[in-house]
Structure formats: C-alpha cells, structure tokens
Amino acid sequence: MDIRGATALITGAASGLGQATAHALAGVGANVVLLDTDTQNGHQIAKQVGGEFTPGDVRNPHDLARSVQVAAAAGPLRVVVNCAGVGDGGRILDREGSPHDLARFERVIGINLTGTFNVLRLSAATIAKLPANGDGERGVIINTASIAGIEGQVGQVAYAASKGGVIGLTLAAARDLGSHGIRVVTIAPGVFATSMADLMPQATRDTQTSNLAFPHRPGQPAEFAALVLAVIANPYLNGETIRLDAGLRMTRR
Q: What three-state secondary structure class fits 235?
C-alpha cells in the first residue's frame, strides 16, 4: 500500500518503538499523528517529524475519538500503529504469600489490551469509510504484543496476559475487518532497547540477551519501525503475529 500523502496514527509515540515508527512513517511521506500521555515529548517529536500531537489515554474513548478525527482531517487514515503499553512485574503470590494486587493487574490489562482494542475499533470505523485501492485494501492496523504473551516469565503474569490477549485478538480482528478491506497484523518484539526494558532487573536482561540466537544484542526501535513499513507494503500479510526477537525463546526467569 502506498501511504504517501495518507495519514498514520501512532499511539505511544512519545518514546521507544512508537517514536521510531513516527520517524519512519514520516520519512516515507505519511502524515503522522501522534497520541501519548507524555505531552512534552509528544509535542517535541511531532515537531521533529512535521506531524501533529494529540494528548490522550488509549483507554479513553473521547481521547481516541479526538485523535482519530485529527488524523482523518490530515488525510485519509490508512495506517494505525498501536505502540502504547506499560509493564508491571509481580507474582501471583509474593514472598510473604500475599496475592497480586488486582488494581495493578487491571491497569496493565486496561492499557495494553483494552486500550489496543479501543484504538482498533474506533480507527477501523473511520478507515472502513475510505475508498479502496485497486486490491480492495483500505488500510492496515498494526498492534504491538510481546513474546512474553507466548512465553511469559516468572513475575510477568499481568504483562503476559495483556500481550497474550493482543495476540489472541489478531486473527479474529482480521477476519472481522476483512470484508472492509482492513488488515490486522501484530508484531511481538523480544528484548528491545527501550525505557520499558530498563525497568527489568539487569540480571534478567543479561539472561535474555545470552539466550538470543543472533544478533547478541537488544533490538533497536528502528528495527521495529522497519518491520512496520514492511507490513504496510505487503498486502498479503494479514491475521498474523510476527516475532521480532533475534531467535529468543524465553526461559522461566
């Protein structure tokens, strides 16, 4: 799909994977609209890429509706990339035998899973109204999961559940939206050099890096953004979760 002059809406765009994706999409001629709760970085990055920033929380339908409206006004909304997400470690029972805090679990599910679905449903309603290209395609929605959604480690129960949910909805969403010419693809990154990865203990990061097949280093956000461009360009990619992890298979810890 040729996205020159079209609009791309990116959530979680004020840092990490979303920031790199905003730069990549602007670099190929898309109108970029960024959504994030971090207003300071969001405005700064929007200025860098010549796009627009819309402050908001992916869990809030009103915030999302406003961002989708801004994106649609900038040009036909053809691309949506869900990068907003949080991590929060914790076992079901801690060392003292106390149960996992339910509010913390619900927050992670709310942002990572419910927020992703909120973006997907509202943006799809706008994309579905666009004229299709010669192949019948109207747009593509790319979600971000994690290999933790497949191979969750000790202390990742909330994060793994949220990302497993994103993986689980991918094919169903692609089937729901296929009649509208909208593709849905999920990327499941491994260990990437982002601020979220910095929250993990150094010992955990060292173990994960040592288990990489090749290359033996964390992924770079620009490599995630490159896969986003490849997904957009290939109309036969649909309903799939793509691991981007240098051959990493997560161990128990």
A: coil
pTM of the model: 0.96
The DSSP code for 69 is H
Q: Is residue 193 part of a domain?
A: yes
DSSP strand pairing (77-82 vs 52-55): unpaired
d(CA 73, CA 61): 18
Average pLDDT (131-158) is 97
Among 116, 125, 127, 119, residue whose Cα is nearest residue 67: 119
Whether 21 maps to a domain, the answer reads yes
The residue range of the domain holding 145 is 7-242
Give me the CATH number covering residue 237. 3.40.50.720
Domain tally, the chain: 1
Residue type, 45: I
Other beta carbons within 10 Å of 217: 11
Q: Is 236 a catalytic residue?
A: no
Which residue is catalytic, options 53, 159, 192, 224? 159
pLDDT tens for 3-38 read: 999 999 999 999 999 999 999 999 999 999 999 999
